[in-house]
Structure formats: structure tokens, C-alpha cells
């Protein structure tokens, strides 16, 4: 089954296009890496698929339905830097919050059943031992894994992850990538992952989409990650180097954090 289908999709803010004329199809169970420089439209596309943003033209279907009718099938993991950490919640409580919205209903009470499941999911991401620690006191990699666990609480069929590796050191990146790899192999979840640095994620990406206010390229990693395509977005110094049968992309890009608020 097709998980996400877009045809001539143009997404706008107050009438002005932020991302134009995007056409692609993502089959169920596949992982798509969404690459592009600052302001390319990565978060915009993710939020539109998640039904958080509604101003668009063209066709956009999630599991064959309008994105808002597929909301219960979608898990969204925001950039961790957008979280409000003033509320002193434990790791388990943050994960349990992901169980409050299930099958289209909002439950206002964290039941025993939800807590049991939250513990199970925290263990799945390798964090059962920190369940009673305050979320804000966890390391960057642990926080990101807690947010992944929170999104898994609703058993999503489509997981949308906004920059899950940004602001993490290499060992924390490896922790998070391992969990993403485990989700891919053990749960039949379709994933779309936005990133500035594609290298740590290439192992798990079936498809790559490069955007820069419009679709530049979409296809298998070896089709999209070519010198010509990468240079067209990142300039003449960008290149793709094959290393031991794998690709390594040098784009000179780094994540520039732009805080637009948000909350837990
Ligand atoms: N709420 C908004 N209102 C108006 N314009 C917006 C809004 N959110 C994003 N934009 C604009 O849409 C464009 C795409 O932004 P978006 O955040 O999707 O890019 P991005 O690729 O995710 O960038 P980054 O990697 O920096 O997070 C930018 O020009 C941005 O300024």
C-alpha cells in the first residue's frame, strides 16, 4: 500500500509558496530521508503530512486519505529543541502522554494500561532504567529516544521525525540511529526523517528526497546522491565520495537553529 502520495503539491504560508510542485510516492514500510538546507521546506512538508499545516494546493494523501483523516495513523517527533522543559515530567510521564491520544480519542487520565505500555516502549528504546528520572535531566540522545518512545505509544503506521540527530554528539547520534534501525526492522512502520546531514542515516534510508523550496531529486540513495545533484544545491565544493561501498556526502551544510516556539 502507498503510505504517502503527493502530486503537484505546493505548500503555502499566507498565500506565499514555501515548497512548490512536489510529486512523490512512498510505499508502506519504507524509510525516506528528507534532505535540504535551512529553509528548504523540510519541516513544512512534514507538518503538512501530519495535518498540522493545511494551506496547500495539489494532491496529498496519507494511506489513501486526507492527512487529517489519517492523523491516528501518524506519529510525529518534533525537533527536541522545541520542547518546553519547565514542566517537571519524568521520562515515563513524557512517554505516557503519547498514549493519551489514541484511535481518535483524547484520554485525560493516564491509566495503568497506558503506564504499562509506556514502560514497555521505554524499554524498547533502551531506556527502561531511566523511567523515573526527570526528562529535562536526561542527555540529548536519551531525550530524543524518549520522544521516539512517546511517538510509538499510538502504534503509528507512519512516523515523521524532524531532525532527530541535530545537536547530538557522535555517540548520541549512534544511540538514536540504532533505535531508528530497530524500529525499521522490528515494526512495520513507514518513516520520513528530515536531516541536514544524511551520512549517519544512510544505512536505514531506502529513499532520499532532496528539496530546496522545490523538489530537486527523489529516488534511491545512489540515484539522488550524485555530485551533479548535490552541487546544484550546495555549490561547487559539495561532493559525494564512495567509501568502502558506501556513499559519503560532503555538503558543508550545518543545522542553523531557528526557534519558532512550540511545546511539549
Ligand atoms: N509559520 C510560518 N509562517 C511563515 N513562514 C514560514 C513558517 N514556517 C516556515 N516558514 C517559511 O517556510 C520556509 C521553509 O521553512 P521550513 O522550516 O519548512 O524549512 P526547513 O527546511 O525545515 O529548515 P530548517 O532546516 O532550518 O529547519 C522558510 O522560508 C520559512 O521561513
TrEMBL record:
Any Pfam family the entry gives: ABC_tran
Look up the record and report any one GO term of the cellular component aspect: ribosome
Highest taxon listed in the record's lineage: Archaea
Identify the keywords attached in UniProt to this record, alphabetized: ATP-binding, Nucleotide-binding, Ribonucleoprotein, Ribosomal protein, Transport
Keyword Ligase belongs to the record: no
What Gene Ontology terms describe what this protein does at the molecular function level?
ATP binding; ATP hydrolysis activity
Q: Which SUPFAM superfamilies match?
A: P-loop containing nucleoside triphosphate hydrolases
This protein is called: Ribosomal protein L34
Gene source species: Thermococcus nautili
Amino acid at each position: 500500500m502507498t503510505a504517502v502520495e503527493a502530486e503537484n503539491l505546493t505548500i503555502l504560508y499566507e498565500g506565499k509558496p514555501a515548497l512548490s510542485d512536489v510529486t512523490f510516492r512512498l510505499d508502506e514500510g519504507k524509510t525516506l530521508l528528507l534532505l535540504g538546507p535551512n529553509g528548504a521546506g523540510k519541516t513544512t512538508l512534514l507538518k503538512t503530512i501530519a495535518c498540522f499545516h493545511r494551506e496547500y494546493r495539489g494532491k496529498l494523501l496519507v494511506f489513501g486519505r486526507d492527512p487529517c483523516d489519517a492523523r491516528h495513523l501518524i506519529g510525529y517527533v518534533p525537533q527536541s529543541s522545541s520542547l518546553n522543559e519547565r514542566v517537571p515530567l519524568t521520562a515515563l510521564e513524557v512517554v505516557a502522554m503519547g498514549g493519551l491520544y489514541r484511535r481518535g480519542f483524547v484520554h485525560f487520565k493516564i491509566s495503568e494500561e497506558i503506564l504499562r505500555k509506556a514502560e514497555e516502549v521505554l524499554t524498547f528504546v533502551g531506556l527502561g532504567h531511566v523511567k523515573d528520572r526527570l526528562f529535562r535531566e536526561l542527555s540529548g540522545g536519551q531525550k530524543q529516544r524518549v520522544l521516539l518512545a512517546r511517538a510509538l505509544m499510538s502504534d503509528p503506521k507512519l512516523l515523521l521525525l524532524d531532525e532527530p540527530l541535530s545537536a547530538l554528539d557522535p555517540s548520541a547520534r549512534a544511540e538514536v540511529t540504532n533505535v531508528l534501525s530497530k524500529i525499521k526492522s522490528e515494526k512495520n512502520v513507514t518513516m520520513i526523517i528530515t536531516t541536514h546531514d544524511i551520512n549517519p542515516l544512510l544505512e536505514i534510508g531506502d529513499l532520499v528526497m532532496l528539496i530546496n523550496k522545490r523538489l530537486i531529486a527523489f529516488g534511491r540513495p545512489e540515484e539522488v546522491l550524485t555530485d551533479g545533484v548535490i552541487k546544484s544545491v550546495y555549490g561547487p565544493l559539495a561532493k559525494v565520495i564512495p567509501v568502502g561501498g558506501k556513499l559519503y556526502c560532503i555538503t558543508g551544510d550545518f543545522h542553523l537553529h531557528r526557534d519558532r516556539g512550540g511545546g511539549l
